[in-house]
Amino acid sequence: MKIRLLFILFFITAYSYAQVSTSQIENNGTSLNSVEIQNNEFTIAPNPAKNKLNIKFQNRVEDLKLEVFDVLGKRIYKGVISKLESSIDVSNWKSGVYLVRISDDTETQTKRFIKQ
């Protein structure tokens, strides 16, 4: 079971990196999107979280898709972010590891958080 969970985590993380690499290739090999990702990277806090998960961006945000997955790949939460700072109520979620994925039409960022 642990090996299966690790494989799923690896697959989801590798998928996110593959999407970033693909978008760089589509821009004639330039690293424009990697610069955009670094400039508008999101942070999640607190980590680990008990009741509320705060998501913050460094720059302006325009309707980004937010999804949270458990380690088995099941989507737990789906929403849209349109502010620099947003919060998700995680108080009713089971304890464990979750993946937060933020995406738009051209790029995807994934981060991991632990629910206590």
UniProtKB/TrEMBL annotation:
Give the source's domain of life in one word: Bacteria
Identify the residues that the record assigns to the Secretion system C-terminal sorting domain, covering every copy.
45-114
Respond yes or no to whether keyword Hydrolase is given for this record: no
Keyword Lipid biosynthesis assigned? no
**Signal sequence region:** 1-18
Q: Which UniProt keyword terms apply here?
A: Signal
Q: Which InterPro entries match?
A: Secre_tail
**Entry protein name:** T9SS type A sorting domain-containing protein
Tell me what organism the protein belongs to: Winogradskyella marina
